[in-house]
């Protein structure tokens, strides 16, 4: 009997031990990580999503100076005032041409505003045709006098006399004088464009007309040209906005300077200063 009792006690103790061990294993499983399929992806609870969002407005990395504007430059000048089109991005359109700082705002239609160009070859003067081409004249005055904002080569927006210090970058066929490019090679501009005023009653049927060069409709900016002989072939393609009234002999001299294979003057011809003034009628 004693042996049988001890055997029963041993079996009972063994069963209790097994039961306790099983409970310990069951409780221990609560400390294990869940299976991979049950893991919460990073950011799914909203805690890490900020790292995946784009930066708030104003914190984006700024573009390199001049990147946007350089992509808008017209193609190199082919030697003639271009009237073609190109597929590259173009500068923004400028429609608010009557800038408040223009001192001649109320006199554009009087055709009594003149511009004198001082060059290292001499001076010539132009009467601006504000009645026929008010957009073109106002844009020119704003750039020439420094009252209108334009974009420099560096990409910086400034207001200063635009034409002072630029060169006459091309003379074609001893007939047409090109200037107004900040790069000095016929590819630059002010970073914006203004619309055409082509059908305004002015024509290239006579010499010494001042007009905007362009590379397609409504792509006028800062580049200009003057014809020293009649050029009726240019009619209806370019906005004429002025006529030379003094210094024609200076322009004749410039038209006959020695040029290279790209029709650029061999010796620099510099526009030292442009002076805009009103003449009382």
Explain what the structure shows.
- This protein is an alpha+beta fold.
- It has a domain at 90-278: Cyclophilin, CATH 2.40.100.10.
- The chain is built from four helices and twelve strands.
- It has helices spanning 2-28, 67-70, 134-145, 248-255, and strands at 92-93, 113-119, 122-128, 150-151, 157-158, 168-172, 176-179, 192-193, 209-212, 224-227, 240-246, 271-278.
- The strands form three sheets. Strands 6-7-10-9-11-3-2-12 form an eight-stranded antiparallel sheet. Strands 1-8 form a two-stranded parallel sheet.
- A hairpin with a 2-residue loop joins strand 2 (113-119) and strand 3.
- The relative contact order is 0.17.
- Residues 21-79, 83-90 and 93-98 have low confidence and may be disordered.
The CATH architecture assignment of the domain at 90-278 turns out to be: Beta Barrel
Q: Span between N and C termini?
A: 145 Å
Global mean pLDDT = 76
Series of secondary-structure elements, N-terminal to C-terminal: HHEEEHEEEEEEEEHE
Q: Beta-sheet strand percentage?
A: 15-25%
Strands ordered across the widest β-sheet? 6-7-10-9-11-3-2-12
Helix content: 10-25%
Which structural class fits the helix and strand makeup? alpha+beta
- Give the CATH H-level superfamily of the domain at 90-278: Cyclophilin-like
Main beta-sheet strand count, sense and barrel state:
8 strands, antiparallel
């Amino acid at each position: 009997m004693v042996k049988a009792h001890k055997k029963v006690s041993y079996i009972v103790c063994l069963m209790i031990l097994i039961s306790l061990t099983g409970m310990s294993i069951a409780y221990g499983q609560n400390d294990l990580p869940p299976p991979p399929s049950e893991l919460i992806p990073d950011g799914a609870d909203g805690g890490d999503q900020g790292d995946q969002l784009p930066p708030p407005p104003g914190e984006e990395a700024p573009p390199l100076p001049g990147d946007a504007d350089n992509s808008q430059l017209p193609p190199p000048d082919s030697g003639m005032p271009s009237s073609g089109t190109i597929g590259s991005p173009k500068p923004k359109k400028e429609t608010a041409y009557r800038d408040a700082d223009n001192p001649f705002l109320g006199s554009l239609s009087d055709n009594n505003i003149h511009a004198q160009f001082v060059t290292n070859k001499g001076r010539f003067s132009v009467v601006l045709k504000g009645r026929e081409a008010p957009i073109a004249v106002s844009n020119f005055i704003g750039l020439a006098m420094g009252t209108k904002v334009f974009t420099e080569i560096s990409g910086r927006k400034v207001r200063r006399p635009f034409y002072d210090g630029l060169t006459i970058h091309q003379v074609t066929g001893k007939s047409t004088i090109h200037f107004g490019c900040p790069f000095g090679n016929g590819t630059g501009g002010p970073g914006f464009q203004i619309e055409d005023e082509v059908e305004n009653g002015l024509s290239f049927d006579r010499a010494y007309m001042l007009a905007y060069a362009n590379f397609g409709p409504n792509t006028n900016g800062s580049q200009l040209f003057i014809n020293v002989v009649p050029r009726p072939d240019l009619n209806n393609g370019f906005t004429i906005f002025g006529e030379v009234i003094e210094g024609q002999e200076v322009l004749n001299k410039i038209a006959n300077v020695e040029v290279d294979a790209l029709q650029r003057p061999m010796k620099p011809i510099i526009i030292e200063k442009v002076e805009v003034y009103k003449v009382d009628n």
